[in-house]
Amino acid sequence: MQCPICGKKIQDNMPFCSKTCQLIDLNRWFKGNYRIQTDEKPNETEVQSELSQSHLTEQDGT
Length: 62
Known about the structure:
The chain is mainly α.
């Protein structure tokens, strides 16, 4: 089996060959690179909530 990030051979039935590849994959999840495209419109209440949370965390510096 091969690492999905770098293509190196994987040992010990782990999904990644190294911690670095694991973190690269995690970062891709956080950035939204792995998502399913749909035709659904976002729920406006959820969007407003996320925007307000994002704005609050930017002000807090967290």
